[in-house]
Amino acid sequence: MSRERILALIDATTATMAAHADELTSLDQAIGDGDHGSNMARGFQAIAAQREALGELELGDALQKAGMILVTTVGGASGPLYGSLLMGIGKGLKAGKGTTEALAEGVESVRRRGKSDVGAKTMLDVLVPTLEALRGGASPAELRGTATASREATRPMQASRGRASFLGERSIGHYDPGATSSCLLIHAVCDALETSA
Fold this sequence. Notes:
Elements: H1 3-19, H2 21-31, H3 36-48, H4 51-55, H5 59-73, H6 78-94, H7 99-114, H8 124-135, H9 140-152, H10 177-195
Helix pairs in contact: 1-3, 1-10, 2-3, 2-10, 3-5, 5-6, 6-7, 7-8, 8-9, 8-10, 9-10
């Protein structure tokens, strides 16, 4: 991947997390500890602060370094989980896997780190269906649609992992913050790859 496209990905994801920080925080105040938006915005700002250095790397290396930045700068569960996602994708790419199977490795890293799976009202409820859509040859527009529909589907779920699980049935009727940030990032990545093509 070209340097320009890596920089476009960094810029798009950073801008998205900054623009939606308040929304993510509001969602997290309802069923979590209220810091998801500020944590994600801070983590991606830290990645943006190293954008020039990241742009000089191969994509796999850039993703692994970005993942480490998230792990070290983002509090709560989201830093380790998103860090694991990026590092897993990067590891897959460096091992010679294609984009889809590298993403699968990242998703599996999230599964292992979070000890969770689809249906627990987490970011996996967006990541896994989007991965399956990508495996099926979905276009960027279809990937955005899958991510949005999957995020919507978290609202009626009862959380069984993370802080939201402590609320039991009171977690029903709220969007999952992690699923929402995953949806936003998928949209941002699709936008960046289309506009920088």
